[in-house]
Design a protein that fits this description.
This protein is mainly beta. The protein is built from 1 helix and 15 strands, in the order H-E-E-E-E-E-E-E-E-E-E-E-E-E-E-E. The strands form 3 sheets. The chain has an 8-stranded antiparallel barrel with strand order 8-9-10-11-12-13-14-15. Strands 2-5-4-7 form a 4-stranded antiparallel sheet, with no helix packed on it.
Length: 215
């Protein structure tokens, strides 16, 4: 619509003069550059010829004064697609410009778009056992685990921690390692794997110290 209005303005202006005008084209592109301004110099009249929209806050504009100079502006503050703008300027042979300052209308204002909904959690694999466990807020920091068959591996944030074990039903039996030691652990998960109650120990001792987690 804006392009059609700009070209119509040029056509009306050109139709009101007796001599064939001289036409000069300009373009400006901006990709996350804030704005790019192209000085087009002195012309009798200038208007937008095309607009390729970038992000939501991007737009094109033409403005200036026939007595001084015209400019083309491409604005893209958000870093979406490249904002591309084009303009055409017309002059009569022997014309020195003249007339009042003219500013072409800018592109329509940006339209707000609601934020996308959060990504859904992955559904449990067949049998009710998920491929990814967590993340859980646990006794020893944030814990995330992955399942491959009945083998489970994972990491937690306390002292570079890692777990590895075998899943049987809702019970994970295995070992933990940290930068300051290693030992055994047993986790018993809720039916929906939203949390677990567990125990741990150093070395090969029977696990008897609490290690719980909740998603």
């Amino acid at each position: 619509m804006l392009r059609s209005m700009s070209l119509m303005a040029l056509a009306l202006w050109a139709g009101g003069v007796s001599a064939a005008p001289r036409v000069t084209s300009y373009n400006a592109e901006c990709h996350a550059c804030g704005e790019k301004r192209v000085d087009m110099g002195r012309h009798s009249f200038c208007a937008l010829s095309y607009v390729h929209s970038g992000g939501f806050n991007s737009y094109c504009a033409v403005g200036g004064n026939p007595k001084s100079s015209w400019w083309l502006l491409a604005k893209d503050p958000d870093g979406g697609e490249t904002q591309a703008c084009g303009a055409v300027c017309m002059d009569l042979e022997g014309s020195d410009g003249g007339g009042d300052s003219v500013v072409a209308p800018p592109s329509p204002p940006p339209v707000s778009r609601p934020a996308p909904p959060p990504a859904p959690r992955p559904d449990p694999a067949p049998g009710g056992v998920p491929d990814t466990f967590g993340p859980y807020q646990s006794t020893f920091g944030t814990l995330t685990m992955q399942r491959n068959g009945n083998r489970v591996t994972g990491t937690y944030t306390h002292k570079g921690g890692r777990v590895e074990g075998t899943l049987s039903g809702n019970t994970l039996t295995g070992r933990w390692t940290q930068t300051n030691g290693e030992g055994r652990m047993v986790f018993r998960f809720n039916p929906d794997f939203s949390g677990f109650a567990g125990v741990w120990s150093y070395g090969d001792a029977v696990p008897n110290q609490e290690w719980n987690g909740q998603r």
